């Protein structure tokens, strides 16, 4: 028999899974509605905004209204971030298949991993810091991703494993849970990083994170 505390933990887990699945669905709808080019960036920013508030500060506002408010909050700037990721990804993937030597292919695979790290962390950086320049956001994202490389590798492996399981055994529900594991993993990593970077007095806003990141080597 489950204890009362055990049932509460199960209920909390299932509630969190539902919340992540619904956020995943909102991300898919927004990305598709924006024809990917105009939807990927704003949808990813809104997802990162909700997850950051939830995991780092414990906020759980109404999901739909909060999500679409975040989509509109920095629409063009987040869309530009999405354009950079899409353009860079298209160039790198083309080079992977078009390269005539294994060395060039390997170099482009490494570049694809760097782009993956940047894409995973740049939206949480945009949400949790006061940086507005795109190059600073991407620089801070790379600093966090490679500064916590062991966690990044673990998160990547967990995400790849979860994606394989979904595609292999539960393909119809993949659109509802495809981003659950990577989004949660990135949210936990950035929560830890930002909590270490800010002081107790500044923790509610997280704005000191950007200054700390710049001091530690993000290029200006």
TrEMBL record:
InterPro entries: DUF624. Keywords: Membrane, Transmembrane, Transmembrane helix. It holds the Pfam family DUF624. The chain crosses the membrane at residues 20-47, 80-103, 109-128, 140-158, 164-189. The keyword Transmembrane helix applies. This is DUF624 domain-containing protein. It comes from Candidatus Microbacterium stercoravium.
């Amino acid at each position: 028999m489950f204890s009362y505390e055990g049932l509460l933990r199960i209920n909390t887990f299932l509630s969190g899974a539902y919340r992540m699945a619904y956020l995943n669905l909102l991300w898919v709808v927004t990305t598709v509605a924006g024809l990917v080019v105009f939807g990927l960036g704003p949808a990813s920013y809104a997802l990162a905004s909700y997850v950051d508030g939830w995991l780092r500060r414990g906020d759980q506002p109404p999901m739909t209204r909060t999500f679409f408010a975040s989509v509109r909050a920095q629409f063009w700037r987040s869309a530009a971030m999405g354009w950079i990721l899409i353009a860079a990804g298209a160039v790198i993937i083309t080079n992977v298949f078009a390269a005539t030597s294994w060395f060039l292919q390997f170099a482009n695979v490494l570049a694809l991993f760097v782009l993956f790290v940047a894409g995973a962390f740049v939206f949480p950086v945009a949400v949790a810091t006061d940086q507005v320049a795109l190059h600073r956001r991407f620089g801070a994202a790379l600093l966090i991703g490679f500064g916590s490389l062991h966690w990044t590798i673990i998160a990547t492996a967990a995400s790849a494993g979860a994606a394989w399981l979904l595609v292999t055994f539960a393909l119809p529900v993949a659109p509802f849970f495809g981003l659950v594991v990577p989004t949660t993993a990135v949210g936990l990593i950035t929560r830890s990083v930002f909590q270490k970077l800010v002081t107790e007095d500044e923790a509610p806003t997280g704005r000191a994170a950007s200054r700390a990141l710049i001091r530690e080597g993000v290029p200006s």
